[in-house]
């Protein structure tokens, strides 16, 4: 069974939590006792309907303020697929959470209030989804019930959004527009007949048929070594296997490989998954690889195929999203973690900061603050075996860690 | 409405969990796996076995024994560690009581569930464990839905929901300051059904109390409580025999039974899919308030 990861973004009151509640409700994913608790909580708040948004707003602070302040994960499944929704808030002060939620998504779900149309937050959501190259974008025009299910209103919003798309850097996203009413469940998982002018799929129908990213086969093969398994038991006395998860591409038994950074070559002898022997390891599979020759490789090294070796970079230019209260300081040293590999890195230059609502570059910045997205150059102490994010996302991203308090302070994608 | 059951386990979840366990072993000096004897920690043990095969599991199991466990759970625990050749550390809540660090609750709702936090934190300090691997899942409860895979705790074991590190892509940052430790949740993205389908696929043994069996129970607040010497009962609470099973493994004083005839794994899974009550709905400890879980987590609860 496949797992589809969705990131939802929306403004505070455009009904995002209600939409998710609706998806759960219509796929029978809410157990009876939770449903009863929901009815009771809605009543206590003096509402005359069941507030499905109460399902996902998990923290006390959120229930008090009626807003979502972190990334919540929600799960539901249909007979064909398992879905994981990363529900993130839309406020500017939570840009970092939006980036977090979007970083693992195959589908970005953007909600627009039909009465308000495209707002500042729509720009931000779209910018992030585009920056991270999420392959599928579903734009749900919500609260259609409040505009009398008006087709012209929907078309206007679609047209406005097309302009956003035209200005985007990455044109490869598949974009789908769906008019919905999450309060009444129209076009979420079912049709109630209120929007007869719309012939396209419901949101759930659309999600069910999204095809999976099988373009992995065209991505270069990358295998970061997490650890070396050497049991030293009688049975496995000479066993020496490299444990890791294939970052991208695939490896076959017999493939000629190069270990980075040493440059030593060998061939894949076996690919193992517990007691099973595999002939191929695909992207995202956790396996153990053994080689024909004894070569010196350890954690943080990377196995790649000959003929497609990543550049060993000591200077990285990247789009960077700053996620910490303490500002990014030009010239300061951080730890850069690319996949599982950590190296020291220094910020050489901040080229510009991007105004994510207008896509304008602001030059001359010497620092970056919380939720800023900018373009920087970093210098690393040891080479990093990364790919350009646009060419191979799975091997093109990194985080920065503050050396003093160990917090994750930024995420970057190589350009 | 009847569900169509999908018996297929999403393989991506196992690959992700194994990746997390390998990161845990590599990034920390002394991880430990928190083992309760329940299906989630049994799943973790299997994942750990697979992650490091043919090598040994590079960390021990830690069981905080409240003294109120189902005897079947303890039997199972000892069988499992023997069978797989694992190291087991047991710490007892009774010792924390005897040391005067915690006080036994009184009244008919008395349980040792809240007390075990102190024993756990002491065990972490004593063992100098910098990472505790747990089987919590985000679908269990809404405060858990927000917890990270590497969740940093301060030296009092507290979780600060507003100060969580962002987790991006599959990059895990396990760097911590002195005194801090990390709770690791490799099966964060699994649902209850995923766990059951995994147990089925891997043909894992589980404690017998998960299957329908006859036992003495009492009825209280609309729930079926297992009758035992640990449970404080009132005069009108008369135990009777009933065929039941348990959906989670907790203490005998805070885990309610469900009426069931399911004695095969397939029947259990079918029952869960038809279930009208969510998994933690049968956990009496969560019923105390809407924010019960979040409050306990802030206090260092697992």
3D architecture notes:
The complex is a heterodimer of chains A (415) and B (302). With 415 residues, chain A is α+β, with helices and mostly antiparallel strands. Chain A folds into three domains: 212 residues, Rossmann fold (3-Layer(aba) Sandwich), CATH 3.40.50.300; 89 residues, Beta Barrel (Elongation Factor Tu (Ef-tu), domain 3); 102 residues, Beta Barrel (Elongation Factor Tu (Ef-tu), domain 3), CATH 2.40.30. Helix content of chain A is 18%, strand content 35%. In chain A, the strands form five sheets. In chain A, strands 7, 8, 9, 11, 12, 13, 15 and 16 form an eight-stranded antiparallel beta sheet that branches. In chain A, strands 2-3-1-4-5-6 form a six-stranded mixed beta sheet, with helices on both faces. In chain A, strand 11 and strand 12 form a beta hairpin. The longest helix of chain A is centred in the middle third of the chain and has 16 residues. The relative contact order of chain A is 0.11. The model of chain A has no long low-confidence stretch (mean pLDDT 89). Chain B has 302 residues and is an alpha/beta fold. Chain B folds into two domains: 201 residues, HUPs (Rossmann fold, 3-Layer(aba) Sandwich); 78 residues, no CATH class. In chain B, the strands form two sheets. Chain B has a six-stranded mixed beta sheet, with helices on both faces. The radius of gyration of chain B is 19 Å and the shape is globular. The chains are: A alpha+beta (415), B alpha/beta (302). Chains A and B meet through helix 2, helix 3, strand 2, helix 4 and strand 9 of A and helix 1 and helix 2 of B. Chain A: This is sulfate adenylyltransferase. Chain A: Pfam families: GTP-eEF1A_C, GTP_EFTU.
CATH domain class of the largest domain in chain A? Alpha Beta
What characterizes the major β-sheet of chain B? 6 strands, mixed
**Radius of gyration over C-alpha positions of chain B, nearest whole angstrom:** 19 Å
Number of domains of chain B: 2
CATH architectural designation of the largest domain in chain A? 3-Layer(aba) Sandwich
Silhouette of chain B: globular
Helix content range of chain B: 25-40%
**Main sheet strand line-up of chain B:** 3-2-1-4-6-5
Given as residue ranges, the uncertain stretches of chain A (5+ residues, pLDDT < 50) are: none
Q: Report the order of strands and helices of chain B.
A: HEHEHEHHEEEHEEEEHH
Can you say what the CATH homologous superfamily of the largest domain in chain B is? Answer: HUPs
Gyration radius of chain A, rounded: 24 Å
The top-level CATH class of the largest domain in chain B is Alpha Beta
């Amino acid at each position: 069974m496949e797992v589809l990861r969705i990131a939802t973004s929306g403004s505070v009151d455009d009904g995002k939590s209600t939409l998710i509640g609706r998806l759960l409700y219509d796929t029978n994913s809410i157990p009876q006792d939770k449903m009863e608790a929901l009815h009771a909580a809605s009543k206590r708040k003096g509402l005359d309907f069941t507030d499905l948004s109460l399902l996902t707003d998990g923290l006390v602070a959120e229930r008090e303020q009626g807003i979502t302040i972190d990334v919540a994960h929600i799960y539901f499944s249909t007979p064909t697929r398992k879905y994981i929704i990363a529900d993130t808030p839309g406020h500017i002060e939570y840009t970092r959470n939006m980036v977090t939620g979007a970083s693992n998504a195959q589908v970005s779900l953007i909600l627009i209030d039909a009465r308000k149309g495209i707002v500042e937050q729509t720009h931000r959501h779209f910018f992030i989804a585009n920056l991270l190259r999420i392959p599928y974008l579903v734009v749900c025009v919500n609260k259609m019930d409040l505009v009398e299910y008006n087709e012209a209103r929907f078309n206007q919003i679609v047209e406005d959004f097309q302009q956003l798309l035209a200005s985007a850097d990455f044109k490869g996203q598949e974009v789908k527009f769906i008019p919905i009413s999450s309060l009444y469940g129209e076009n979420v998982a079912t049709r109630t007949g209120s929007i007869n002018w719309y012939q396209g799929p419901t949101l759930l129908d659309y999600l069910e048929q999204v095809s999976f990213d099988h373009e992995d086969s065209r991505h270069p093969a990358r295998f970061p070594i997490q650890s070396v398994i050497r049991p030293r038991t009688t049975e496995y006395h000479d066993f020496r296997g490299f444990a890791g998860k294939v970052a991208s591409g695939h490896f076959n038994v017999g493939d000629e490989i190069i270990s980075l950074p040493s440059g030593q070559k060998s061939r894949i002898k076996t690919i193992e998954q517990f007691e099973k022997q595999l002939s191929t390891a695909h992207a995202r599979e956790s396996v153990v690889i053994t080689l024909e020759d004894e070569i010196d490789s350890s954690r943080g090294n990377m196995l790649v195929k000959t003929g497609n070796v990543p550049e060993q970079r000591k200077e990285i230019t990247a789009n960077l999203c700053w996620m910490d209260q303490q500002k990014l300081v030009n010239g300061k040293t951080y730890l850069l973690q690319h996949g599982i590999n950590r190296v020291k890195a220094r910020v050489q230059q901040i080229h510009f900061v991007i105004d994510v609502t207008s896509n304008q570059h602001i030059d001359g910045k010497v620092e970056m603050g919380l939720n800023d997205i900018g373009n920087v150059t970093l210098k690393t102490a040891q080479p990093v075996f990364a790919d350009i994010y646009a060419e191979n996302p799975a091997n093109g991203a990194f985080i920065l860690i503050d050396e003093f308090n160990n917090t994750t302070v930024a995420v970057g994608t190589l350009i | 409405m009847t569900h169509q059951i999908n018996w297929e386990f999403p393989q991506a979840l196992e690959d992700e969990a194994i990746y997390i366990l390998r990161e845990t072993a590599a990034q920390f000096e002394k991880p430990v796996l928190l083992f309760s004897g329940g299906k989630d920690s049994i799943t973790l043990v299997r994942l750990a076995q697979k992650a490091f095969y043919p090598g040994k599991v590079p960390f021990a199991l830690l069981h905080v024994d409240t003294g109120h466990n189902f005897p079947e759970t303890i039997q199972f625990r000892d069988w499992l560690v023997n069978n797989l050749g694992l190291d087991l550390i047991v710490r007892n809540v009774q010792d924390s009581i005897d040391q005067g660090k915690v006080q036994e609750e009184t009244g008919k709702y008395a349980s040792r569930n809240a007390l075990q936090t102190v024993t756990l934190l002491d065990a972490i300090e004593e063992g100098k464990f910098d990472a505790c691997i747990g089987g919590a899942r985000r679908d269990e409860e809404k405060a858990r839905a927000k917890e990270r895979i590497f969740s940093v705790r301060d030296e009092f074991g507290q979780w600060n929901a507003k100060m969580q590190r962002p987790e991006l892509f599959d990059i895990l940052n396990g760097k911590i300051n002195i005194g801090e430790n990390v709770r690791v949740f490799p099966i964060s993205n699994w649902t209850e059904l995923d766990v059951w389908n995994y147990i089925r696929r891997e043909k894992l043994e589980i404690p017998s109390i998960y299957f329908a069996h006859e036992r003495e129970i009492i009825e209280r607040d609309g729930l079926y409580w297992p009758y035992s010497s640990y449970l404080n009962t009132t005069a009108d609470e008369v135990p009777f025999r009933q065929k039941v099973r348990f959906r989670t493994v907790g203490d005998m004083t805070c885990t309610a039974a469900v009426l069931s005839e399911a004695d095969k794994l397939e029947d259990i899974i079918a029952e869960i899919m038809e279930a009208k009550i969510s998994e933690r709905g049968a956990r009496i400890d969560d019923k105390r308030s809407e924010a019960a879980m979040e409050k306990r987590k802030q206090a260092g609860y697992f």
